[in-house]
Every structure is written in structure tokens, then in C-alpha cells.
Amino acid sequence: MKQIIIGGGIWMLLWLGSCKVPKDITYFQGIDDITEKQLEMMNQTYNAKICEDDLLTINVSSWDPSLTMPYNPPAYSYYKQGEQEGAESSVESLYTYIVDKEGYINFPVLGRVQLAGLTIHEANSKLRDLIKPAVPDALVNVQIVNFKVGIYGEVARSNIYTIRNNRISILDLVAMAGDLTINANRKNILLIRDNNGHKEYTRFDMTDPNIFASPYFYLKQNDIVYVEPNAAKKRNANYSAAQQYTLSIISTTVSGISVLTSSIIAIIALSEK
């Protein structure tokens, strides 16, 4: 009898030992062991570039506002659906410019100006140089107002987020979405990108510190991120709520038996001394 109890206890302990806590939860594993070369590759910078279908606001300023008036169409007011004209809840918006399929905008006085492919800084400089003959001290401020990225799947808050500063990393987006859930597969996060009409995709491993060196670490306009469930979540999807409850009862019972068996083994060991 003693041998049976001891054998059963050993088997139970081995079974419990096989149910280890997954190592796929912690982010950036091994970051303390990266080399100087790897660290240098992680130190990347990114500036968003203007793309077709981007919506821009452009403000031109000067010490003499009368000189910049032709370049600054007035803000306009509009009413939300269902509201009557004259309501105090009307919304005022700056004039916007859409980048066409050829990469151009129609700008007052200057006409068609190509901005696609330029960073915000480069677009500011180009427009300032074009306006300079008429307004020598002109300052130009270009902003992308429809910079949006989406995240779906195993996150706390799936959503499409508007980015104000035109720069966001995959980690920033995960944080905005309230982090990954415990059921997320952190090693296989999918990014889908529309690159000038061509779809491309890549995958991230959040447990690997080399994510900082990925050329996709910083996101672009209209990027979509999907976080798939881990293997445990996929398995649970095959069971109904009642079946999952039964499995939880069985798991609790097995755990109780394992504790009882361990106690019996300890008592037997003490009695033999």
C-alpha cells in the first residue's frame, strides 16, 4: 500500500511539474544580454512620410499677416447630422488638403504641389521655399490629420486610434490598447500595411528584444495590427461554457488530490524516521 501511495505521489508531482508557467508572457526576454552591435541597431529614428490619400492642414504665418492671407483659406463651420443651422454646437474646422493618387495637393496661389514621399519637415521646407519670393519670412506648418492605426484581437481595447504627433511604435499602440491580454500570443503579432496600394505584412515577437531593431517598429498611416490568441485560448474555444466549468472542477480536484498526496508522502517519510 505504501509503495502504491508513494508511486502515485511521484507520478502526480511529475505531472504537475510538466504544467509549468509559460515562458511566453514576459516581454523583451534576454535584453540584459544583448551586444553593443545589437544595441546600435535598435537606436533607429523615424519620421512619418506623406502618402496618397493623406489629409493635411497647412498653416502659413508671417510678421505681416496680410501677406499670408492668400495662402490660408478661412476655417469653416459645419453641423453634425441632425443639428439645425444656427445651433451653438456647430464645429469649426481648418481647411484641409487631400493628397491625390499622383501625390499632389492643390494649394492656393501655388497650384499643384507634390508632397507625397516627403517627411513633414521636408514638406514645410518645400512650401516655404515656394512661398518665400512673396513672403520672405514665411513659416509653414504641415500636419497630417488622418494618421490612424488599428489594433484588434487579444488586447484590452480593440480600436482605431488617431495619432496626433505622426509618430507611433508598435509598443505605443499596444499601450494605447491597454496592453495584451493574458491569452495573447506574444510571439506572433501580425502587422498589415498598405504600401502605395500594395499589401505587405510582417510579424512581431514581443518576447524578443530585437523587436526594437525591426524596420516595422514604427508604424505608418492606416497600419493594422492583429493579436492572435494563444494555444490555450484556441483549445478553450472548442468547449462550451459548461464544458469549461467541468474542466475547471476537474483541475481543482486534481490539484487537491496532489496536495493531499504530497501530505501523505511527507507523513509516511516522517513516520519512518
Name the features.
273 residues, alpha+beta, 5-stranded mixed sheet, 3-stranded antiparallel sheet, 7 helices, 21% strand, elongated
Question: How would you describe what is shown here?
Answer:
The chain is of the alpha+beta class and 273 residues long. Helices cover 31% and strands 21% of the residues. The protein has seven helices and twelve strands. It has helices at residues 2-18, 36-42, 65-68, 120-131, 170-176, 231-236, 241-271; strands at 55-61, 76-78, 91-93, 97-98, 104-107, 111-114, 139-144, 148-153, 159-162, 189-195, 198-204, 224-227. A five-stranded mixed sheet has the order 9-8-12-10-11, with helices on one face. Strands 4-1-7 form a three-stranded antiparallel sheet. Helix 1 crosses helix 7. Residues 4-8 and 13-21 have low confidence and may be disordered.
Short description:
The protein is of the alpha+beta class and 273 residues long.
Topology readout:
Blueprint: H1 2-18, H2 36-42, E1 55-61, H3 65-68, E2 76-78, E3 91-93, E4 97-98, E5 104-107, E6 111-114, H4 120-131, E7 139-144, E8 148-153, E9 159-162, H5 170-176, E10 189-195, E11 198-204, E12 224-227, H6 231-236, H7 241-271
Parallel strand pairs: 8-12
Antiparallel strand pairs: 1-4, 1-7, 2-3, 5-6, 8-9, 10-11, 10-12
Helix pairs in contact: 1-7
